[in-house]
Write a structure and sequence with these properties.
about 475 residues; binds phosphoenolpyruvate; binds magnesium ion; eight-stranded parallel barrel; three-stranded parallel sheet; about 15% strand
């Protein structure tokens, strides 16, 4: 192994071993080993200083090969106004976080960006996916004016955000928030969230050296419930693996982690983590408000196995009857939606994973980003089938993938008959404003045409005339 690889493997192993020591004070020292380990790793890699950001005045645009979700959370928001990574994809978890933090970002920029010298002036346009290097005076003025216009449009949508998202002809769609922490919630409510459609609980497990205790989890959930004040909360159980490893959960090396032991598969392999989480959910639950959702279900057997644990834990602590649902993010689950709908109360369609699995295009691999457009008719047909099958059984269907915040997709998604769309916080008000402008009849026609298209580009062309004057999401960003 190279020196860096050998060093990384040994200090990480040591950090995990320390984190497993029973004495909590000693276990917490694992973070120090990680920190020192990372500093030495940076020296080995020839990175002069690990404090580039601290040494510089803002505003800054961070340019790097890639960012992990924890790097993204750690960015100093008082200085960092945007980031650009040469790798990654629009549905990588770092990009999802950037969206929920409202940070302009470009992913998959190509390697040239890495050659930029520190201190170079740039304009980052996250909508178009363009990084302008050494812009002239006119370009800077135009960028500032465009940012101001976007802020004004958004501010108008936010002023109306509390109004329901009802189409011109009276069809209402719930618009909820995807959040990963309590801190995002007040803004979500101020910007019109009808509830939380996806709480990505794995974020509560990141940036630490051991899993949060049941007590800690209960207190976070209770606080979220309190702030929600009666609005619904969908708690997704731990979805780790893939691009979200946890340092203190030992995982075998897998050559295809996205096709390996992730999501519900890992939870079933490590039921200790799941059981603590379920106990916290039942103990925090308030009647009618709490919904539990299991990620990455690909098969009826998995659903039965997890339902068994869910019921066992509920009975052990005499927990309340909590509404139970699953994510539909694996094509097999979409194809078997009629069977799965019998066993659950609701579905939430995860288009980020559904797209990568349907089109066989890794959501992190920049070389296949062009292929993985969730507007592809193959994905839309699976969404359509899922909705119809669930509605046949009178089950609620939400969508919580990034597609829900894609302005070009909204008319199609409304037309396919979703009951709820759940999006990152900065997109809430804009999605609601757009739905209020749509007609339910026309949206249904557009959706039927979309299902007959041959390519994602054709679908995008269909909806463009309905979106005049709105900035559409560029798929490279
Ligand atoms: C999805 O896959 O669409 C989803 C919402 O889950 P995540 O992005 O957290 O994998
Ligand atoms: Mg997913």
């Amino acid at each position: 192994q190279s020196a860096s690889q050998a060093w990384k493997a040994s200090f990480e192993e040591m950090a995990v071993r320390i984190s497993e020591i029973e004495d909590a004070v000693i276990a917490a020292r694992s973070a120090d080993v990680q920190d020192v380990g990372n500093r030495i790793l940076r020296k080995l890699a020839g990175i002069e200083s690990d404090d580039v950001l601290r040494e510089r005045e803002g505003p800054l645009v961070v340019v790097s090969d890639d960012l992990t979700p924890s790097d993204t959370i750690a960015l100093d928001r008082s200085k960092v106004v945007g980031f650009c990574t040469s790798a990654g994809g629009p549905t990588s978890h770092a990009a999802i976080l950037a969206r929920s933090l409202g940070i302009p970002a470009i992913v998959n920029s190509g390697k040239q960006a890495l050659e930029l010298v520190n201190g170079t002036q740039v304009i980052i346009d996250g909508t178009a996916g363009v990084l302008t290097i050494d812009p002239d005076h006119d370009s800077v003025a135009a960028a500032r004016a465009s940012a101001r216009r976007q802020e004004e449009t958004h501010a108008a949508a936010v002023r109306a955000a509390i109004q329901p998202a009802t189409t011109q002809d009276g069809h209402r769609v719930a618009v909820c928030a995807n959040i990963s922490s309590l801190t995002e919630l007040p803004k979500a409510l101020a910007e019109g969230a009808d509830g939380v459609g996806l709480l990505r609980t794995e974020w509560l497990f990141l940036e630490r050296t051991g899993p949060p205790s049941e007590k800690e989890q209960i207190s976070v959930l209770q606080e979220i419930i309190r702030v929600l004040d009666g609005r619904p909360l969908v708690v997704r159980t731990l979805d780790i693996g893939g691009d979200k490893p946890l340092p203190y959960v030992a995982m075998e090396h897998e050559s295809n982690p996205f096709l390996g032991e992730r999501g519900i598969r890992l939870a079933l392999a490590r039921p200790d983590l799941l059981r603590v989480q379920l106990r916290a959910i039942f103990r925090a639950a308030q009647a009618d408000q709490m919904r539990v959702m299991f990620p990455m279900v690909s098969d009826h057997g998995e659903l039965q196995a997890v339902t068994k644990i869910f019921e066992e834990v509920r009975q052990e602590i005499s927990g309340p009857a909590v509404v139970k649902g699953i994510m539909i993010e694996v094509p097999s689950a979409a194809l078997m939606a009629d069977v799965l709908a019998e066993e659950v109360d609701f579905f939430s369609i995860g288009t980020n994973d559904l797209t990568q699995y349907t089109l066989a295009a890794d959501r992190l691999n920049p070389r296949v980003n062009g292929l993985s457009d969730a507007m592809h008719p193959a994905v839309l047909r699976l969404i359509d089938q899922t909705i119809r099958m669930a509605h046949n059984k009178e089950k609620h269907v939400a969508l919580c993938g990034e597609l829900g915040a894609d302005i070009q997709a909204v008319p199609v998604l409304v037309g396919l008959g979703l009951d709820e769309i759940s999006v990152s916080v900065p997109a809430l008000a804009d999605v609601k404003a757009l739905i209020r402008e749509l007609s339910w009849d026309t949206s249904r026609e557009i959706a039927q045409q979309a299902l007959k298209c041959a390519t994602a580009e054709e679908v995008r062309k269909l909806t463009t005339p309905y979106l005049v004057g709105r900035s559409t999401l560029d798929r490279g960003t």
